Amino acid sequence: MVEILGNLGPTLAEWHAWAVRQPVTELLQSRYARGRLEAYYGLGATLGQTPRIYPARHDPRVDALGNEWLKGWHSALLCKYTPGVGINPHRDHTCFQPWAVMVNLGEANFFEYVGKDKQVTPLPDGAIVRLNTKVLHGVLPVSQTRYSLTFRHVKPGFLAPEQQLSLELPST
Fold this sequence. Notes:
The protein is mainly beta. Helix content is about 15%, strand content about 40%. The protein is built from three helices and eleven strands, in the order E-H-E-E-H-E-E-E-E-E-E-E-E-H.
């Protein structure tokens, strides 16, 4: 189950302004999230059968937020959802560790399947959540623009030797 860890509190407006300023494009061309725009921070990933992990943008604010909520994170994916855009049920790529932390900017109805049961969790603006990305999950289409910033660890076998130097695996 998705677990709400906290919220952005007094910095929420600053994070909204930050997200709006970020250059986002359709990087992944996902069949699960048509119309979603993205930007990577830390390490990016080209997905598919043979993913490639590459250096992406660096932002000290993203670094600090990620280190506060997911120590030793490698990759942060900023996603922009415009009205009518959601993400269909999926599991995240095998190059990523199961546990991730997502910062929700805007309102969203996050869902995941626990067994065969679809469980919908309304995520308020500014919520910081922990989720198992290997559980079938998604987001219902949004009615207002929403951003998410998801911090992940890359599995060691997908990291280049120089990327593994700072590897800190999460405790589960």
